[in-house]
Amino acid sequence: MTDANTIHLTVDLVAFCGTEVLVIERGDDPYAGHLALPGGYVDAEETSRAAAAREAAEETGLAIDPGHLHQLGVYDDPDRDPRGRVVSVAYTLTLAERANVIAGDDAAQAYWLDIEEALKRPMAFDHRDILIAAYSRLVDGITDQL
């Protein structure tokens, strides 16, 4: 990502189960070893919603019906990613039962973590802001539960 005129589209997923959030530990730079939300680049032939479901499956093994994802917002701070200009569409999902997850793709680890604990740890990119926004909606009862 060296072309300053190129804008890349990515997705991030905030998946909740009770008081836990699904996180990964990044295996690659930037932010290798930091907590992050599952996510990644949108392919040319897919919607951002489909990309969020695909990235969750690739990074955590979590199989999601894209129709169950709820758009949280668009994150477009020009400096949100040190690799270049990246705009992300964030989605939420609330599960009634904790699903088993396993790290894959560029995630070194994938696991469920208490939301409050996740917020205390260093997070990649602007994922703390995304998590805070999603958590606020969860507390307000806006997110549907599967």
Q: Give the overall pLDDT as a whole number.
A: 93
The major beta sheet can be summarized as:
7 strands, mixed
Based on CA atoms alone, the radius of gyration comes out at: 14 Å
Global morphology: globular
Derived structural class: alpha+beta
- Spell the H/E element sequence: EEEEHEEEHH
Tell how many strands the DSSP assignment holds: 7
Quaternary state reads single chain
SS summary, helix count: 3
Low-pLDDT runs? none
- What percentage of residues falls in helices of 4 or more residues? 10-25%
Distance between the termini: 37 Å
Strand residue percentage: 25-35%
Could you walk me through the main structural features you see in this protein, from its secondary elements to its overall organization?
This protein is an alpha+beta fold and 146 residues long. Helices cover 22% and strands 32% of the residues. The protein has helices at residues 48-60, 115-120, 127-139; strands at 8-17, 20-26, 35-36, 39-41, 70-75, 86-95, 107-114. Strands 1, 2, 3, 4, 5, 6 and 7 form a 7-stranded mixed β-sheet that branches. The radius of gyration is 14 Å and the shape is globular. The relative contact order is 0.28. The model has no long low-confidence stretch (mean pLDDT 93).
